[in-house]
Amino acid sequence: MSRIGNGRSKNLNRLLQRFQLLILRVATISFGTLENIQKNHGPTVSHWEDFSYSEATTGSH
Q1: ∠ CA 51-35-38 to the nearest 5 degrees?
Q2: pLDDT for 4-54, tens place per residue?
Q3: Engineered SS bond to 61: which of 4, 11, 42, 47, CB 3.0-4.6 Å?
């Protein structure tokens, strides 16, 4: 009984790790596209929270 539980939790942990990697990859890709949008369109993306940060680093447009 306990063996089955251990095996199941191991598989679950593996699955969670894969899921986390996938989420991380998607997040980085979407963040990259967000950055590109900001570079291309400038102040029109001012409603994003991180726009003030990019404005501070790159200077006002």
Answers
A1: 55
A2: 667 788 889 999 999 999 998 888 888 888 777 767 665 554 455 555 555
A3: 42
Total number of domains constituting the chain: 1
Residue 48 in any domain: the answer is yes
Q: Using CA of residue 43, residue 48, residue 49, residue 54, what is the dihedral sign?
A: negative
Domain of residue 33 covers 2-55
Domain-embedded: residue 60? no
Which pLDDT belongs to residue 58?
Answer: 61
Q: How far apart are CA 45 and CA 41, in angstroms?
A: 7
Place of tokens 């679950």: 12
* AA identity, residue 43: P
What is the reported pLDDT for 17?
93
